[in-house]
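Morning!

This is the sequence you dropped in the shared folder:
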Amino acid sequence: MNYQKTVNYLFQRLPFYQREGSVAYKKDIGNIIRATKHLNNPHNKFKSIHIAGTNGKGSTAHMLKSILIQSGLKVGLYTSPHLKDMRERIKINGNMISKKNIISFVKNNKEIFEEINLSFFEFMVALAFDYFAKKKVDVAIIETGLGGRLDSTNIITPILSIITNISLDHTNLLGNSIKKIALEKAGIIKKNIPVVVGKKDKTKPIFDKVASQNNSSIKYSKDVEFKCDLLGEYQKENINTVVSAVSELQKIDFFEISLNDIIDGLSNTVKNTGILGRWQILQKEPLVICDIGHNEDGIKNIVQQLNKTKYKKLHFIFGTVDDKDIFQILELLPKDALYYFCQANIPRAMNVKKLKQYALNFNLKGSEHKNVKEAFFCAKKNSNSDDLIFIGGSTFVVAEIL
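The structure's back. Tokens below.
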């Protein structure tokens, strides 16, 4: 198989949550245990840091990676979902996994993995672990996909666990309360392994209890005065989490992380990691910004940032997925914007006619478009140089723009 055929196989043959939703979600880790056993348990051959949370785990992972790169380490990073290229999910330092490595891995393992019936996510986790082991990374930062307790990445025993924040998202899979979701995320806390929690709120008793049960020291992040090149004031919470995590890593003899490494790592996160879709400015006149925030907390952060941004008229390109609690999100959106409702090219996308009808109930007015590209074209046509075009509501809407 060439690379394109390999990609087609992975996307079409395997259940893919980002495309299909809960039908592709596996509620146990038996598959990944069998797959990694076949690969001689590569996840046991490198140091790892595990990150879970509802929002901010991707930004946190990239900031931390940048700092560790600055300290001179060879750093692996596994994240999801991808925006432009599935190879974004697996990186060492600033480089994505090569096409050649993916082709070879699929060719050598597809038969046994089909027998195991791996999902796309499980396949990519197995690939990442195998790749990091073979490339002998000094440390790998591993981001959970959904939840934590039953996430495929949760077979690792990390040197540090990090939990960013907890809010309502994927309630059909993780539970319909903050407490239930927090318990799922707390599933990454391992025996005798320290954990850093990014936000001290009503979830604290849950994390304290699980940490105590596992004899794990627990630390809550504190306010720090560091700057990051990731834009958006909502990144402040993630910066606090990362710096607190670094202070824990500095207690381990293996890590030699200086103050300059922290400063330079944070200020060069985009350059060092290539992270996309976080309050990303695509154009200046008119100002075009995209952000992948898509749940209630993420949308609140976006609206707060919009309120601090100068523009004459707001053009909002908005699409979402069908399994989202859309009403809470629509209630938060600015009423004075002109909306361009659209749907991403995935089966999970909410039908644009239904989306527009829901939006009208919240006095959000605009036009409907059959795809993201058409919505963007129309927004650019209608905007003046001092306007703002914002693209969001779904990771997949942003991905199609990028």
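Headline: The longest helix spans residues 99-116.

More detail when I'm at my desk.
O.
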